[in-house]
Amino acid sequence: MLREHRAATAPFHYRKGELHAEAVALNELAVRFDTPLYVYSRQAVEQAYARFAQALAGTPHQICYAVKANGSLALLRLLAKLGAGFDIVSGGELERVLRAGGKPETVVFSGVGKREIEIRRALAVGIRCFNVESAAELERINAIALGMQKTARVALRINPEIQAQTHPHIHTGHSKSKFGIHAGFAEQVVRRALELQGVRLVGLTCHIGSQITDLAPYTEAWRCVARLADRYAEFGAPLEHLDFGGGFGIRYRDESIPDLGEFAAVAREVLGDRELQLLIEPGRALVGAAGILLTRVEYVKTTPYAKLLVTDAGMTELLRPALYDAWHDVREVTPGTETALYDVVGPVCESADVLARERRLAIGAGGLLAIMDCGAYGASMGSNYNSRPRPAEVLVDGARVELIRRRETCNDLMALDILPDER
Length: 423
Ligand code: LLP
Description:
Blueprint: E1 12-15, E2 18-21, E3 24-25, H1 26-33, E4 37-41, H2 42-55, E5 61-66, H3 73-82, E6 85-88, H4 91-99, E7 107-109, H5 116-125, E8 129-132, H6 135-147, E9 152-159, E10 181-182, H7 186-195, E11 199-205, H8 215-234, E12 241-243, H9 260-271, E13 277-280, H10 284-287, E14 291-302, E15 307-311, H11 320-324, E16 330-332, E17 340-345, E18 354-361, E19 368-371, E20 392-397, E21 400-405, H12 410-414
Parallel strand pairs: 4-20, 5-6, 5-13, 6-7, 7-8, 8-9, 9-10, 9-11, 11-12, 12-13, 15-17
Antiparallel strand pairs: 1-2, 2-3, 4-14, 14-15, 14-19, 16-19, 17-18, 20-21
Helix pairs in contact: 2-3, 2-9, 5-6, 8-9
The chain binds ligand LLP.
Ligand LLP binds near residues 246 and 248.
């Protein structure tokens, strides 16, 4: 079978013509847990983390996993045990990290719209620092910290105005972006931070986008941040760290991705002999390839123009194709013999609910498909649109399978609704 090429040691591989997650047949998981189902490989997460840790060995660093990629408590706990800190963007993500056993002092808090209640809670539990995105936010954090008789550790997020080659929706470092403080304006914010009694400036940070497959924009952005750090040190801003953000791309199709060692070499070179700790905030590169979405073909529908596989998963489970035109590999769990060209479509009442177009697949009604590389921004971007309960999620470790999120029920969907007294 041409698909057996994936090494048997890869987290998702074919064995005797059947797709497996580690040592577990996906067919069995579908019977046991029903579909659609998110399936994660523990080994894949561990391997991805180890690759980062190896690439950065010898450089004082902290890997802050970007929780938004996948906030599953089980995955957060696993990553915390591996040594990860966390990059959060909301109070909800902070609570997830704490519940999973993550240490507050390893948490950095990013995002342009931090609310007062979120800042208060983060200060109370003692996070490592706030990645401040505006002068107004700096003032707010200062006032709250003074009121709580605390000093907030802050890093300024610099917008280096770089054009990274990625989808416009996930590209954040350019001049018109809402993110960060534009490099040219940062100095006055730094000066203000040094005046304020409730904050302590400990770092600079930048994040220029996601699914970046090229070293050049990183080099440019990181150099910009390092130059600013030198400049600010001259007027008395002794920084502890530089945070180079996340965005490291993964191979969904045929993208050529620089080796993590190359990213690390650039980071090291930019840091030079500055005595600063390096922080990075990878999300996708840690969990993207570790998850698949398992879905059953409900119908094969033939129109005058196309053959459609109508699956029980759609844009509610995996939004990326509808939102970004993202390409995910689609594999038959048990490939048949006769192939045809299909569009894979979900059941949601939206024309955008197409998971994949023009894929050559050997499958029929009732067959199972695995949408690959869904570990990042899959479950975390899911929704209940069309009143669809969210799928269950399982974590596979060798031959062991753990349910890490139960399937939602229709009662769950209505649990927060309130029917006022009838009038
Ligand atoms: N740090 C910050 C401040 C971020 O905004 C992000 C992602 C990350 C780190 C992690 O980026 P990663 O290493 O995962 O690329 N939903 C989109 C991706 C949005 C990314 C938003 N920010 C997608 O599905 O492709």
